[in-house]
Design a protein that fits this description.
alpha+beta; 4-stranded mixed beta sheet; globular
Length: 189
């Protein structure tokens, strides 16, 4: 199965997630999983690389209906990914990802702020008490950061990345390439 690894502060991830979500709804066998590549607990400044990436994906973003405005900074996203896990358990993962991406890229919200995340969780119907508990749970934060570290050890150096049949592939593939990759099926090796 094709697995798309994404992070909320990546404009290419915003496009890839929108595209793969649509294709999953159409029956493509795939799953979307969050990862935080940088792994620091601080808001970072916007880099020239990010500005270039915004320009590079602008046409694809428009085609997928994704709004990408220049953010004020790049907040840590581990807590947002913790809520993505809760949303997955409640069959609300697509709604959570769409809301979180829109909040960051279109609305300019600080998705590293726990109060903002609690509000967004309410917007998609996540139980407020459980959302607050998850983002305040230090053990859950440690566990998700360990998973992110495992992704980095496995070779994920950026997002979006597709993990397919034990192979890592740049994740911003066009629709035809995604469909062809999913149709290959796993190897027998």
């Amino acid at each position: 199965m094709l697995v798309l690894l994404h992070d909320y502060t990546s404009p290419a991830s915003a496009v890839a997630v929108a595209r793969v979500t649509r294709l999953i709804a159409e029956g493509m066998p795939a799953r979307i999983e969050g990862t935080e590549v940088v792994g620091v607990e601080a808001t970072l400044p916007v880099t020239l690389d990010l500005i270039a990436e915004l320009d590079a994906v602008a046409a694809q973003a428009r085609a997928e209906g994704v709004v990408l405005r220049r953010p004020a900074g790049l907040p840590p996203t581990a807590a947002a990914h913790l809520l993505e896990e809760l949303a997955r358990e409640l069959d609300r993962a697509d709604a959570w990802r769409a809301r979180c991406y829109r909040a960051f890229w279109a609305d300019g919200d600080d998705i590293g702020d726990h109060a903002v995340l609690r509000r967004l969780a309410g917007d998609v119907g996540l139980p407020p008490e459980e959302a607050a508990r998850r983002i305040g749970d230090r053990m859950a934060l440690l566990e998700i950061r360990q998973r992110f570290a495992a992704h980095r050890r496995d070779g994920v150096g950026g997002v979006p990345t597709i993990s397919y049949d034990r192979t890592l592939i740049p994740g911003l593939l066009d629709e035809a390439d995604l469909r062809a990759l999913a149709a290959l099926g796993p190897s027998s090796a």
